[in-house]
Request: fold
Amino acid sequence: MIHPYDSYRSLFPTLSTHVHLASCSQGALARPVSKAIEEYHAGLLLSGSNWNEAMKKLEETREKFAELIGAEPDEIAVVSSVSHAISAIAASLPYQKGENKIVFTDIDFPTVGHIWLAQETMKDNITLIRSSSGVVHLEQYEKEVTHDTILTCIPHVYYYNGFKQNLKAIADIVHRKGSLLFVDAYQSAGHIPIDVKEMEIDILAAGTRKYMLGIPGIAFLYIKKELAEQLKPRVTGWLGQEKASTFDIYHPVFAAGARRFETGTPSFISVYAAYEALKLLLGVGIHNIESYLQELTQFTLHYGQEKGLHIIGPQSFESRTSLVSFYVEQASEIEGLLKEKNIAVSARQDVIRMAPHFYNTKDELKHAIDELSSLMNGR
Ligand SMILES: Cc1ncc(COP(=O)(O)O)c(C=O)c1O
Reply:
């Protein structure tokens, strides 16, 4: 297979010495992203203050993420993490006795459960949808989301096995029941096309350090315009106000749209990194990335099976991403041994996850699978 993005590989220094298959945890750092981090740093170092430039970069970054998911910039808040985004939404939901059921799934990232179970007013009215063989079926949403559900919280992709959900089909079901749909897109944004309008998503959150190729410190929170205007954030602050620059302590007025969910000064250094990373990804094109990754996935599934490895999760492209999980009992120990061979993968519980991006090649996957298989056979 010819690598269509070969010319981009030199942008990622780590690829010259390492096989980087851990984009589900931390994407490889590109030179333009590293340069942007230096630019922020140099601004402070050389001129002492770069507030105006940084605020301008924040707006440009908001626009880039909006473009990535087909939203308006006003529908995006920049927050510090996905956990922050979910907590802020949880604290803003109107409480109505008997009509405040929250539905989430056991394929959500654990932070989702931790947050909903911490909500005093809601914790007794929570429905947890349980997966079978790492998959949640549409019929389960049909059954468990009921007319008293205020919000259904789901991941686009299951971090453990790469299972991808049909967001539009789930949106149709939950909306018919009167529930809002919250999508955690941290494992999809940056390599799977997302169109929040077409998919009818009400709220979506994603951080920048995985497939979005940025660094920790910020995340994006999309809230459909009409909805954002109805929500009253209780996790708030001066940058969530309509006129932060008036410094009026007595008369807070929420900013229009999703901006009202912003709080204080963001991690600008992460904003600079995200801007360049998003520019790079949009330049390559998310549809192009998805179709290249499907080719790599096909290879990984076939070759992994040929080597006798046990693959966890669905096989069809309809319901999976390029994150392929191999069953390995001592996963974190094996992750460490592969790291010693300059192969970066990501262990979770009893699996080794190989998560390529557009910068990876088939040969890299072959090498990683060969090494994994010989480590497993040597035990
Ligand atoms: C699907 C998903 N959601 C949420 C998180 C946690 O994000 P944060 O640390 O930004 O709260 C992760 C992190 O690994 C994740 O994979």
